[in-house]
Automatic annotation (TrEMBL):
Name of this protein: Phospholipase
UniProt KW keywords: Hydrolase
InterPro entries: AB_hydrolase_fold, LYPA1-2/EST-like, PLipase/COase/thioEstase
Family: Belongs to the AB hydrolase superfamily. AB hydrolase 2 family.
Domain of life: Bacteria
PANTHER family: LYSOPHOSPHOLIPASE-LIKE PROTEIN 1, LYSOPHOSPHOLIPASE-RELATED
Keyword Ligase: no
Any one GO molecular function term: hydrolase activity
Residue ranges occupied by any Phospholipase/carboxylesterase/thioesterase domain in the UniProt entry: 31-214
């Protein structure tokens, strides 16, 4: 099972290794793009699939160069994360396009990421707003410094969006998660925000159950 990124994306993530599993793209009922966290691997995030019941999905997880999508904090000035951030965003957009060409339209795709990868998934959805099957940010928020004004011009058109995070995550300020939920709702996302007491920087069973619900919803659409 393979996807072709054509034309190649610009920047450091050009030629990123893709790890896949599940149904062949031409036979899958939905596609899932998975973005790993800083210092992790595509295989790490793809392990989430083993925790879920697969409703006939094609799963694809790209590997970031140097195991990081961008070098600085997700709340650093945007220029501090270039050209890595723009390259990562281009890669996610290219994967969405490749899945479409393989017969899985965006409305049957789920964009999901954890931590740094979750920030990437949310930012990708905002900058390339359209009707997706779903968007999930686990321990994540939109990218940019405090006080950033997002100027997303598209619409998510009712896309289900799930945000899950601890109330005291050491890497993701609660205020940014809540701000991200408001912004994604502003551009038409059907946002479900869950803040978990004392969870830490990890994923819990309730979050996985909500992801499962999204997968089932997309597969049954």
């Amino acid at each position: 099972m393979s996807l072709v990124i054509d034309p190649p994306i610009p920047g450091p993530h050009q030629g990123a290794r893709l790890v896949t599993r599940g149904s062949a793209p031409g036979q899958a009922r939905l596609g899932v793009v998975l973005c790993h966290g800083r210092g992790a691997t595509a295989e790490d995030i793809l392990a989430l699939a083993a925790e879920l019941e697969d409703p006939g999905a094609f799963w694809v997880a790209p590997q970031a160069v140097g195991q990081t999508w961008y070098p600085s904090s997700f709340m650093a000035p945007l220029r501090d994360n270039e050209p890595y951030l723009s390259s990562a965003l281009a890669l996610v957009a290219a994967l969405v396009g490749a899945l479409e060409r393989a017969g899985i339209p965006a409305e049957r795709q789920l964009l999901l990421g954890f931590s740094q990868g979750g920030c990437l998934a949310l930012e990708s959805a905002g900058r390339s707003a359209r009707r997706y099957g779903g968007v999930v940010g686990l321990a994540a928020g939109l990218i940019g410094p405090a006080g950033r004004s997002w100027n997303f011009t598209g619409t998510l058109a009712g896309t289900p969006v799930f945000l899950g995070c601890s109330d005291r995550d050491p890497h993701i300020p609660r205020d940014r998660v809540e701000e991200s939920a408001r912004e994604l709702a502003r551009i038409g996302g059907e946002v479900d925000l869950r803040i978990y007491p004392d969870l830490g920087h990890t994923v819990n069973r309730d979050e996985l159950d909500r992801v499962q619900g999204l997968l089932d919803r997309i597969a049954g659409a």
